[in-house]
Amino acid sequence: MKLTRRHFTTLLGAAALAPLAHADEIEPPMEGVEYKKVPRPHPKAKHVTVFFFYGCPHCYHLEPSIDAWLQRKPADVTFERYPAVIDSPAWIFFARAFFTAKNLGVLEQSHKALFDALHRDRLKLFSVEKLAAWYSQFGVDPKDFDTMFKSFKVDTQVKEARKLTQDFGIDGVPAIVVNGQWLTDVVMNGSRTRLWQTVDWLLANK
């Protein structure tokens, strides 16, 4: 790689200021390139939402970097994972699984485990019965799981998730929405490292 004056200056600055590095010191991301305004914003200050689908391998592989970012996120920033919902039976099925686990109080312990079960262990949890049996390891009675999975409450939550997916213009996952207004993802940024730099910059500047 050719070392231009800009690169040289950047390297000197990084060496001198590394201990003080924060979102303001990265190369600012460009709107329309590394992030974009969502079609129908839902403004929410200091908020990060990761949209995902349990069947998505890219979402699975993003999880470690999410966990790393959570270790250093500002205390005043709220974070949530949210299932993207499109008109696909599989996406709707696993969105129902997410909200069922959340409503039954086992989402925190089951979220990564379900990703592992589907992608690492290759378990075919593609029916309510199999999914209910799998969730029993977290102390959930299969009958309670089945009832919640088919409940009006979960119906409503899935409809809300579908609307939010549409309002934010999400057509692929994983996708990250910052402050309910700005959409970014790995593809737009070229790497996971740059993705989280963009997230930090948006939180600090938008």
UniProtKB/TrEMBL annotation:
<dbReference type="GO" id="GO:0016491">
    <property type="term" value="F:oxidoreductase activity"/>
</dbReference>
<protein>
    <recommendedName>
        <fullName>Thiol:disulfide interchange protein DsbA</fullName>
    </recommendedName>
</protein>
<dbReference type="InterPro" id="IPR017937">
    <property type="entry name" value="Thioredoxin_CS"/>
</dbReference>
<keyword id="KW-1015">Disulfide bond</keyword>
<dbReference type="InterPro" id="IPR036249">
    <property type="entry name" value="Thioredoxin-like_sf"/>
</dbReference>
<comment type="similarity">
    <text>Belongs to the thioredoxin family. DsbA subfamily.</text>
</comment>
<keyword id="KW-0676">Redox-active center</keyword>
<dbReference type="InterPro" id="IPR023205">
    <property type="entry name" value="DsbA/DsbL"/>
</dbReference>
<feature type="domain" description="DSBA-like thioredoxin">
    <location>
        <begin position="95"/>
        <end position="186"/>
    </location>
</feature>
<feature type="signal peptide">
    <location>
        <begin position="1"/>
        <end position="23"/>
    </location>
</feature>
<keyword id="KW-0732">Signal</keyword>
<dbReference type="Pfam" id="PF01323">
    <property type="entry name" value="DSBA"/>
</dbReference>
<dbReference type="InterPro" id="IPR001853">
    <property type="entry name" value="DSBA-like_thioredoxin_dom"/>
</dbReference>
<dbReference type="InterPro" id="IPR050824">
    <property type="entry name" value="Thiol_disulfide_DsbA"/>
</dbReference>
